[in-house]
Amino acid sequence: xxxxxxxxxxxxxxxxxxxxxxxxxxxxxxxxxxxxxxxxxxxxxxxxxxxxxxxxxxxxxxxxxxxxxxxxxxxxxxxxxxxxxxxxxxxxxxxxxxxxxxxxxxxxxxxxxxxxxxxxxxxxxxxxxxxxxxxxxxxxxxxxxxxxxxxxxxxxxxxxxxxxxxxxxxxxxxxxxxxxxxxxxxxxxxxxxxxxxxxxxxxxxxxxxxxxxxxxxxxxxxxxxxxxxxxxxxxxxxxxxxxxxxxxxxxxxxxxxxxxxxxxxxxxxxxxxxxxxxxxxxxxxxxxxxxxxxxxxxxxxxxxxxxxxxxxxxxxxxxxxxxxxxx
Amino acid sequence: xxxxxxxxxxxxxxxxxxxxxxxxxxxxxxxxxxxxxxxxxxxxxxxxxxxxxxxxxxxxxxxxxxxxxxxxxxxxxxxxxxxxxxxxxxxxxxxxxxxxxxxxxxxxxxxxxxxxxxxxxxxxxxxxxxxxxxxxxxxxxxxxxxxxxxxxxxxxxxxxxxxxxxxxxxxxxxxxxxxxxxxxxxxxxxxxxxxxxxxxxxxxxxxxxxxxxxxxxxxxxxxxxxxxxxxxxxxxxxxxxxxxxxxxxxxxxxxxxxxxxxxxxxxxxxxxxxxxxxxxxxxxxxxxxxxxxxxxxxxxxxxxxxxxxxxxxxxxxxxxxxxxxxxxxxxxxxxxxxxxxxxxxxxxxxxxxxxxxxxxxxxxxxxxxxxxxxxxxxxxxxxxxxxxxxxxxxxxxxxxxxxxxxxxxxxxxxxxxxxxxxxxxxxxxxxxxxxxxxxxxxxxxxxxxxxxxxxxxxxxxxxxxxxxxxx
Amino acid sequence: xxxxxxxxxxxxxxxxxxxxxxxxxxxxxxxxxxxxxxxxxxxxxxxxxxxxxxxxxxxxxxxxxxxxxxxxxxxxxxxxxxxxxxxxxxxxxxxxxxxxxxxxxxxxxxxxxxxxxxxxxxxxxxxxxxxxxxxxxxxxxxxxxxxxxxxxxxxxxxxxxxxxxxxxxxxxxxxxxxxxxxxxxxxxxxxxxxxxxxxxxxxxxxxxxxxxxxxxxxxxxxxxxxxxxxxxxxxxxxxxxxxxxxxxxxxxxxxxxxxxxxxxxxxxxxxxxxxxxxxxxx
Lengths: 327, 471, 282
Hints:
The structure holds three protein chains of three kinds. Chain A has helices at 11-17, 19-40, 47-52, 63-71, 73-104, 114-122, 129-139, 146-153, 167-195, 199-207, 212-223, 225-240, 244-250, 261-270, 276-300, 304-326.
């Protein structure tokens, strides 16, 4: 694929240029990661061990994990909350982003002011999640607050709703905040992906008589697989590690309804009992979950044709090799 | 290629394990810290501390600003004060403080300030080894200082370690009162003076419940929210955790019943403390007019009377004894036992000035009378700034606690005896998390989402899951 | 024809309605924020949703400047240093890594890319607690280095830049430069990087915003107040246990948002024109 000049191989530069990344990763991510893994197998809990920094690996290294999975109800609650809030946030988000992308890249009906809209839609991403959570907490405050005021004004309710003690209301609001902060970003990335597509494939389909909707579903989407993959994975990671918003909106409450996995982990470590080993085990479980979901997404969105092609290529090559050796 | 990858990964893991794994040393039995310094404290004079730094840690600007003011007023005190402030949201301050204390070295705090919510962690429980007994700062003079200052019992109690040595003192007295609106009391009972009102609302919570019903009949909420009630009731003399087990004592359990009555009879505006509606009730602009709040002097001076929080109600408030005495809040100053010994003289001087100095130049007197900072009225006259109840009974007896917000009532008349009613025996290391969990579940019960038994069971489960404390 | 035109108009009406609604929704909190910065705390408590500005801007300003911890100029400068450093490390080294993944054909190329995707899956929080504990042990606290250097390994940016290069990069320019005797590294710096401007501009916004708004790590690693970044200073405004000065807080948040707006609107033309990401290579 690449031309060789005077027989010089440039391949080694591939390795060399990646060194900074590997160094940065090893120093700042790998070591803490390994540290976390080791702690999760240990007895590192309680104030005295926390102070001395000394601990030892348990006889049964998986004890922390089994205890979390079998005995800790809050762990499962936080896990289900996290997934629930993520789904409520993500599905509308990706649907809206796709719809907006379809509209903004529609070849027949040009929308004016696209640029302005794009700039506006991304704006919620600019403020910190924390500030937004505080603002929403004020909006939904009880008994007097703008939303309650509005509801009474338009006659939907007579008495104010206490959003802060309603489990499902809190979850929906947190999901909405997340949705609202990220839909613009998602749309921008998807639009960029569509712009990168070869216009010829669209022109060909138009000749065949495909309309906008058909074009979108049968041409645009399949070709955006890598971008979609990226969106899904980053959303999974972001969703499963949501911390700021539920924390600052209602402190993970009420009744642990908005306690996400990250909040659970943080509380294990810093509620007063210093259960750092369990926090580490929960972190690793979260990581495993993310990895499983991501691999699942990878598999679903894999390029089946390319994979088949690769397999055939490999088989062919092996056959040729075998022939050469035989003959 | 795959083999190389596997080898690399194994190598990394090995390095990680070797680096991180430390042998579990036999834990040292905590010896009784000997109080060695019996020399009487000598009040310092002349230029001192030049070129030396004292690390002061706090969670608000309040005490650091006061210490910097002390430096201004005492130019011979030349220690450099290095202030570290971390706000206490999400327990950040405690976390940073613990890191700094355990790491030690030049960045370690020399003096650190801790709040009621976690003071006992540093005076009696997990981190008590970092608290330097005051005896080591002041020698045999300490006894005299204490008896002279006449400090509220619970303040000393909270700051006394497990061996009976004093390691920390608060500078405020946070014994609490019932702070009420005179005009509303008159509307309900015909009279608004403290004696009458106290006879109507107390003693005891059952009496308070009756008073709430009487207030309701006039369309007045007796409190802003149930949380205000919990603030008082949770201050039980017994600990949450006894012998490693969670114990719900009768006083705290009673909150479930009392709070339920309040909630379902709409005796309060159901606000959450520190949120918009709670603040709005201070000026009577909430859902319904609120008769009063339960709290200490700082609630009045720094919250209710601050800025335009009082709205039109300024001057219309009075205070009387609460139905059941309790203490809420306060900041304790502790010297780091493992801090820099070279600056200990400066540390002693600062701590003495904050808590034990009863003269007109000490923090106590100036804090109580609002004369620490220069404060001018519109005509440029020097007037008293914000006053507050302080730890020293001696100082309060000599001070004038009358404030305009209370229509001229001398708040010290109520707050000095209130200091007696505070108890720190029930303060424990897991209080913040447990109190929050209990209040959370209680609210679920009040609103009908759970039955009482379900709420209690859920509470125990949360404590077990988050803190590994069974019951 | 008639049918198509009506359908087209209906379509456009629908689109514009939805987009304008979304646009208003997106801008609304900023509106609230800036207005609230001019109102007093009490006004905000009584009516959280403002429609008109009020007259307390100077008062809130006084509250902020009275607080010894809040020094906007200093906060801006510090945040700029950290965000600028992060942007540089993140973008430069991600471009370098992405270039390595596209321009050269080396054996471990695909596995390494898979490895980078895997790293993307590691949640930051798992790393964070171990990371700042490690920094405390090593004594690297109160310095900007542990805040900036980790950006060297930014898997998401690498992914982006790689996608961009796959769509737009061709080896011809590189080969002619090689013939002229240029070294690989200088080829990257002088030829490839300038080619990647649109992608760099877009990612700069994302990285800058992320770094500027970062609160947790700077908060736990910086202890000298002269080093505090803007978000830390704003968070300290809320830290006063007595009074939550809402007006001042909104003013603080508004002030910290202004530089982001500047960067954002300066680079927004790249958002508007959109960049190509990935593509069908034939």
